[in-house]
Design brief:
Layout (H helix, E strand, L loop, with lengths): L1 H14 L21 E4 L1 H4 L5 H13 L2 H4 L3 E3 L5 E4 L5 E3 L6 H10 L3 E6 L16 H11 L3 E5 L3 H8 L4 H22 L4 E5 L6 H4 L7 E3 L8 H9 L13 E3 L12 H13 L4 E3 L8 H7 L2 H7 L8 E6 L2 E7 L5 E7 L10 E2 L11 E5 L4 E6 L4 E2 L5 E7 L1
Parallel strand pairs: 1-2, 1-10, 2-5, 5-6, 6-7, 7-8, 8-9
Antiparallel strand pairs: 3-4, 11-12, 12-13, 13-18, 14-17, 15-16, 15-18
The chain binds alpha-D-galactopyranose.
The site of alpha-D-galactopyranose has 9 residues, from loops.
Length: about 400
């Protein structure tokens, strides 16, 4: 009888795709096997975000098709935090009257909920941080049903300086320990959560982040919705490819597609660059006013497939000529994505840009598809040239 129940439980867990844990050698599904996809409140709503904004966003992720395109995490960034109660338990503030109810709502839509805190006494927006309450906070998040934590250094930088003035190595040790502390606290809850580091790429975080639990780590300071900042961040990822892979990703920050005054070509370049970088695709726009042009960029299935490719290889720059850069990303099935960017101020129609297949590791002619145009190009070789608009890109998948 007992064995029967155990077996039934295991079969049910298996049918539901849950970790079984009971069978020898059974593996828990990897957290962030492909770069996480979702939406975060900061880039558009910043400190004004409310419970209603999160519910509206959840509704719209479903009705626009974004959820089904892969954007499943709905992440509340800074400014949800209230005070602690007498036992030290963190409370949400008046903008978020009932976190558990909000979480249930988000989950009822087939989505997952993310939250934000800091290892310091205060977050970057000067709300309550987790210092000294790591286990309590992780357990509170688990009780609420949180699936993703962005942990932002903020005021912990001050703690590091105070405890180890002028000693960079000791400060780095403190930072690693702070991230590891929350990592252990999350593990203790038993609830799988994506663990997202935000410490702006300091101390070569890509080297040590995974060893203290990072599923993703910010590689730079904050993005903003302008082409110069976005492209500077994107281009500065050259050389980081070797640190990324299933379960652990470089994070050049959340998407600004659809924000500010980015043009269509600029939004296309942004989306292409992030997909090539196997970056987390965390949209940051206001879904209540999303234009069809933006929806089409965010939901291009072939571009998302490049980002989410199961090989989990980040691209690197293979060729640069002034403002023109070609990046290559290995894909499953022996394919490669090649992105030809024009970061310059003028279109390249006069001359055209060659493919530079040799630099991308390809010797002969290749079959190519122009991804954004949705068009097969047949066989092309090194002699093939294309125009690329100002701040624009041509994205090919070749084999
Ligand atoms: C930092 C982070 C941002 C955002 C804000 C919130 O600046 O880098 O992404 O989370 O804090 O205060």
């Amino acid at each position: 009888m007992r064995i029967g129940w155990l077996k039934a439980g295991w079969l049910l867990a298996f049918a539901l795709g849950m970790p079984t844990g009971t069978k020898a050698g059974a593996q828990k599904p990897m957290v962030a096997a492909t770069p996480p996809m979702g939406w975060n409140s900061w880039n558009f709503f910043a400190g004004k975000v409310t419970d209603k904004d999160i519910r509206d966003t959840a509704d719209l992720l479903v009705s626009t098709g974004m959820r089904d395109a892969g954007y499943v995490y709905v992440n509340i960034d800074d400014t949800w935090e209230g005070k602690r109660d007498a036992e030290g338990l963190i409370q949400s503030n008046e903008k978020f009257p009932d976190m558990k109810a909000l979480s249930d709502y988000v989950h009822s839509k087939g989505l997952k909920l993310g939250i934000y805190s800091s290892p310091g006494p205060q977050t970057c927006a000067r709300f309550e941080g987790s210092l000294g309450h790591e286990e309590q906070d992780a357990q509170t998040y688990a009780d609420w049903g949180i699936d993703y934590l962005k942990y932002d250094l903020c005021s912990y930088g001050g703690v590091m300086r105070q405890q180890a003035l002028d000693d960079a190595a000791a400060q780095n040790k403190l930072m690693r320990e702070a991230y590891e502390k929350m990592h252990q606290a999350i593990l203790k809850t038993g609830r799988p959560m994506v663990y997202s580091f935000c410490q702006y790429g300091d101390d070569s975080v890509w080297d040590w982040g995974p060893s203290v639990g990072a599923n993703l780590w910010r590689t730079t300071g904050d993005i903003s919705a302008n082409f110069d900042r976005m492209s500077l961040i994107g281009r500065s990822q050259a050389g980081l490819a070797k640190f990324a892979g299933p379960g652990h990703w470089n994070d050049p920050d959340m998407l600004e597609v659809g924000n500010g005054k980015l043009t269509r070509d600029e939004n296309t370049t942004h989306m292409t660059l992030w997909a090539m970088l196997a970056a987390p695709l965390i949209a940051g726009n206001n879904l209540t006013a999303m234009k069809p042009e933006i929806a089409a960029i965010l939901m291009n299935k072939d571009v998302i497939a490049i980002d989410q490719d199961a090989l989990g290889k980040q691209s690197d720059r293979v060729y640069a000529e002034g403002p023109v850069e070609i990046w290559a990303k290995p894909l499953t099935g022996g394919r490669k994505a090649l992105a030809i960017f024009n970061f310059g101020e003028t279109a390249t129609e006069m001359r055209g840009i060659g493919l530079h297949l040799k630099e991308a590791g390809l010797t002969a002619q290749v079959s190519a598809r122009d991804v954004w145009a949705g068009r097969d190009l047949g066989k092309i070789g090194d002699g093939w040239k294309t125009a690329v608009p100002r701040h624009g890109v041509v994205l090919l998948v070749v084999k």
